[in-house]
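Hello,

Our lab assistant flagged a job as stuck in the queue for most of the afternoon. It eventually completed. Since we weren't sure the result was trustworthy after the delay, we are filing this so someone can double-check. Below is the sequence as submitted and the structure that was eventually returned. Let us know if re-running is recommended.
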Amino acid sequence: MKKSILFICISFLMYACTEGNNASDATESPQIQAEKQPFAIAIHGGAGTIYKENISDSMELAYKTVLEQSVRKGYKILEDGGTSLDAVEACIRILEDSPLFNAGKGAVFTSNGTNELDASIMEGKTKNAGGVAGVTTVKNPITLARAVMEQSEHVMLAREGAEDFAKHVGVTLVDPEHFYTESRMKALERAQQRENSLETSFYDPYAKEDKFGTVGCVALDKEGNIAAGTSTGGMNNKRWGRIGDSPIIGAGTYANNNTCAISATGWGEYFIRGVIAYDIAAMMEYSNLSLHSAAQRVIHKKLPEMGGDGGIIGIDQKGNIAMVFNTPGMFRASIDTTGTLSIKLYGEDQ
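-- returned structure --
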């Protein structure tokens, strides 16, 4: 009898301990799941004819410093549980505020000597998106693009309408002189000198030295949501209100939780014609390709067959990062799911 009672007591204690552990596991499960969810981020500062011999050591350091500052800012937001949208906007704002890149402060000039800025942003959960084109007084176009996405019923606003909306929602405006930089003005003067030397009255606006600088970011957060954003000053010496791919969803920017987030840079007209950002996502969805395989096929085969060049950065829901370009270089940086930082300007894609 005593043995039976002892056995029952021991069994009860073991059951109680097991239930306690199960309850503890259930309580910790969401936290454990959150820790297991990968997060990562990547940025670019444009693709083009970027050669080591053409960039001084001091300029290379300057580029790498801003790229690192930007990508670390976004990664910290993700690490602290922030959204991929917040990370994308924060990264791009830093690049827009630097005169080194063709976006925001460092934007190139139009043929009339003005700066016209484009940007777009998209999140992958609902596929909501916003873009702005041809703005001249908006300090951070990526922030206005997000406001269009979140505070209006529209996807894209342009020129005076976009700037009126910026005033309405309180986005920071600046005098157009804010965007003036001596280096960009000299680039415009060189372009117009080439134009005047041509027999035709039309200047080739795609001179290779002018084909880089657009900035972008893609990110995956701890909730498993991805986002992408792109911002640019457009093309040096551009005319007639030219708009490139950067503010166009599907061309320069795209995000879908089921596939990937993409930010593009390069010869915008071809990225528009090829709907390049969306094409990569579509190849993943319909052909079951990996992010890197889809990006390589589009950037190294389909884009050049049309006559275009440039590159993309992309991220999928597992945190895999692709940085693919068919030009000599692309300013780029990333922090992957292991927390490893990478900053590169030249060389092959990855």
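-- support follow-up --
The delay was a queue issue, not a problem with the job. The result is valid. The domain at 39-346 is CATH 3.60.20.30 (Glutamine Phosphoribosylpyrophosphate, subunit 1, domain 1). The longest strand covers residues 40-48.
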